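This is your field. Pick holes in the following sequence-structure pair:
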Amino acid sequence: LVVEYSDLFNDRDYLERRRRFDLDMTLSKIALLRTQMLTVGLRYERFSGVTDLPLGVLPPQEGGLSGLRLAWRFSSAKEYGFSISREDGRRIQFSYDRFDPRLGSDFTQNRYIASWREYQRLFGSHHVIAGRLTGAAAAGDRLIQRTFAVGGPTLTEEWIDPDQADFFLRGYPSRITRGEKAALGTVEYRFPLWNIERGYRTWPFFFRRAHAGFFYDIGNAWDGAVEWKKFRRGIGSEVKMDMVLGYWAPVRLRLGLARGLDEEGVTQLYFTIGNSF
């Protein structure tokens, strides 16, 4: 995987290649209305630069992070037959990563991440207000590219681990802010448009339903003390299509338009998959 850091060196973007291996054991407790999952495992991640930097510029560190990971997840959010999102409940996640030279790591670091996502059904059928709060902190060796990065629509949080170090902030370039601490918040209003439930002859795709939403994002990554005035805000809307591909694979396609309201904000048109969270 190649990731991009926007404006890392005086308006120069920096590309970094990452390779990662996880070995996890997950214990689950599943009840009628709620689930809990405890994950214990090993992680190895190696990163190296792709971009050639000019002479005199100190390049970001390269090497590997190796250590232990621990994550706990709780969910009471519900989905029904015609749901466009999780409804009526919450998802809470905590994770801790310990990278240590005694476990083969080139750097020493502790990472802590906590996230709360709330879903509440509103008036009408399957209208949902969804919110998330995420906080992260790291201690130990400090890399030039930093531990946490905020910016860009990137991948949806439904498709990445709860202990990822990259957080989306729509309306801004990829990883526009970086630091040893990060905080983000989002509010989304999601509503259905059309229950299609139709395919075309025997072609390998089936349209289930179309829906849309409006969102407000706010977040930042930083070092040292928090400065609230440097938090960046973004607004926008999205249109989504639930489909079944290849007769068996459910997919949620997502087309969005976002606008950053603060410094370095841009107007973005993006296409990805899944709900944002």
Notes: The radius of gyration is 20 Å. The longest strand covers residues 12-30.
